[in-house]
Design brief:
The complex is a heterodimer of chains A (108) and B (427).
Chain A (H helix, E strand, L loop, with lengths): L21 H9 L3 H11 L3 H9 L8 H23 L13 E4 L4
Helix pairs in contact in A: 1-4, 2-4
Chain B lengths: L11 H4 L15 H12 L4 E5 L8 E7 L4 E7 L5 E5 L20 E3 L2 E3 L6 E3 L4 E3 L20 E5 L2 E5 L7 H11 L10 E9 L3 H8 L5 H4 L6 H10 L5 E5 L2 E7 L13 H6 L1 E2 L2 E2 L20 E8 L3 E6 L3 E11 L2 E10 L5 H34 L12 H19 L13
Antiparallel strand pairs in B: 1-10, 2-3, 2-5, 3-4, 6-7, 7-8, 9-10, 11-19, 12-13, 13-16, 14-15, 16-17, 17-18, 18-19
The chains are: A mainly alpha (108), B alpha+beta (427).
């Protein structure tokens, strides 16, 4: 059963990244290898421009399950962009054991 | 040769009448000094505990743990719509009144009355004791004398503050010239909120230090920019557009050409597509005229103003029409809880939500670097191996903060306003 809008069906293999909370997306990032992060980035980034155009037409009130998943998938791309574009490692360099955790965030 | 004009005295530090000698951080490494700060600062000054949007209707409440003032408070909107604050404590045997499951965790919700879990005593939202279980068993008990212990509470521009000093000046007066300068900013329009929390292994003032100077930014955060841009930034270093000080409060006004950047090559690929980044969403929502107190240098390259309202409330207003707050809540001399809330005009569609997510996550990546650096600073300061440290003119607000905090302690100990203080190791 598809979880993303039909126009983004090719990203279905990465639907497990469509997590509702920033905390979950960050946890998945730091538990992934750089190869896994790069593979997701290489598949999703080329679709980000189309995704942005598509999401401009999506209201947050009454958002459908498919559109919500697409939003979360691109939010996960935001999370993954830092290790891929900047850090070259899943964790923030020199961040050691420190953590900053989300305690309030909008839904969706 | 400075890129931005300095005051006639030649430096901001001298302009504000501050010493230019090396400083000691002994005020950040001593349990005894922290105990003095608790009495002299955290039980004396106005503390921002939240915003009015957290109390949307009559009966809405939230609790705030204030270790530094050695108490917990409950904030509530009463049945008349007034915001009230009480010590979160039952008058009967001292049990914490409002909590769920874990007594140390903050809670929020809506209720018509507060009921103590222990013996079922009940209090109205105005604090009055309304019900005592088996009242006839007590001796000469007058319910009118046993209301909740009230705490001074006031609201400035939608920000709720408490104060444990019955003699405290009114909040508006306390906020001073810097507060007055930003009254009217449409904080109430920016209700889309993301909050982050971290336990930091450093004295509360040391983390404020980290966010009141941007001298560190081109170095510590070098990798956040593209390589070429990063080399350029380190070459320039950092200079603020302006600093200001009013009583215990301070302001650093900074440039910020990154929203949008002059050249798209300066920013990361995802920022180019989503038109957003550390400085916020490039396409700012229309919020009308800004108050006079923002961008005090009237500089066209203005990017953000960071206000520190003493002791522990940072309000950072960004040019692309959003703001964030930092709070540093001490839990001991070398630990504190850091809270950051980012506030945006609510997105009108899912794309704008995604743009805001990039600004939020970028903040978090920077914050993780800052937080860990601070633990490294605290442990070495505690070694005592070196006692005095130089501060540059771009670190003037650190000097001001430590001087202010020491002054509160000195005046509290002597009982004399205007007690002179030094922050060098010799003091």
């Amino acid at each position: 059963m598809p979880t993303l809008p039909a126009a983004f069906a090719e990203l279905e293999p990465f639907a497990d990244w469509a997590l509702p909370s920033e905390a979950d997306r960050y946890a998945k990032r730091v538990q992934s290898s750089m190869d896994e992060l790069q593979t997701f980035y290489d598949a999703a980034f080329p679709r980000l421009e189309d995704g942005a155009e598509y999401l401009k037409g999506v209201a947050l009130d009454g958002i459908s399950d498919e559109d919500r998943s697409l939003l979360h998938l691109f939010e996960a791309l935001v999370t993954v962009s830092f290790p891929v574009e900047v850090w070259r490692q899943p964790r923030v360099p020199d961040s050691g054991a420190s953590s900053i955790d989300v305690v309030v965030e909008p839904v969706p | 040769m400075p890129h931005f004009t300095k005051p006639p005295e030649g430096s901001w530090t001298e302009h504000f009448g501050l010493d230019t000698g090396p400083v000691s951080y002994a005020d950040s490494t001593s349990p005894a000094h922290y105990e003095l700060e608790q009495d002299a600062i955290f039980r004396k000054t106005w503390l921002n505990v939240g915003r009015v949007e957290q109390l949307p209707k009559n009966g809405s409440y939230f609790t705030k743990e204030l270790d530094a003032a050695n108490t917990s408070v409950v904030l509530v909107r009463d049945m008349e719509g007034e915001v009230r604050a009480f010590h979160n404590m039952c008058r009967h045997r001292g049990n914490k009144l409002v909590w769920n499951d874990y007594p140390g965790e903050e809670v929020s919700g809506t209720c018509r009355q507060f009921t103590c879990k222990y013996h079922g005593w009940r209090y109205g939202l105005e604090g009055q004791l309304t019900f005592v279980q088996q009242e006839g068993e007590f001796f000469d008990l007058d319910k009118d004398d046993l209301g909740l212990a009230g705490v001074n509470v006031d609201v400035w521009e939608g920000f709720i503050f408490v104060n444990f000093d019955p003699e405290a000046p009114p909040l508006k007066e306390y906020m001073g010239r810097l507060g007055a300068g930003i009254e009217g900013y449409p904080f109430h329009l920016m209700t889309q909120k993301h909050t982050y929390k971290a336990e930091i292994g450093a004295n509360w003032k040391l983390f404020i230090d980290a966010f009141m100077e941007f001298y560190h930014a081109p170095v510590l955060h070098a990798k956040q920019a593209t390589d070429e841009e990063s080399r350029k930034l380190q070459g320039y270093g950092f200079e603020a557009l302006a600093y200001d000080v009013d009583g215990p409060h301070s302001l650093v006004s900074s440039w910020g050409g990154m929203a949008p950047p002059k050249d798209l090559g300066m920013v990361k690929p995802i920022e180019r597509v989503l038109r957003s980044g550390l400085f916020g969403v490039w396409d700012a929502p229309d919020i009308g005229e800004l108050p006079e107190g923002l961008n005090p240098a009237r500089h066209p390259a203005w990017g953000e103003d960071s206000f520190l309202f003493f002791p522990n409330f940072t309000l950072l207003v960004w040019k692309p029409n959003w703001y964030l707050t930092y709070h540093y809540w001490p839990t001991s001399y070398n630990t504190h809880i850091f809270e950051c809330s980012l506030y945006f005009v609510p997105p009108t569609n899912a794309y704008e939500r995604l743009q805001q997510e990039l600004a939020v996550v970028t903040f978090k990546e920077y914050g993780l670097q800052d937080g860990n650096t601070l633990e490294a600073t605290q442990t070495m300061l505690e070694s005592g191996a070196i006692q005095e440290f130089p501060l540059c003119d771009q670190e003037v607000l650190l000097r001001h903060l430590h001087t202010t905090a020491r002054r509160y302690v000195a005046e509290h100990e002597s009982g004399q306003p205007g007690t002179p203080v030094q922050i060098s190791a010799a003091s």
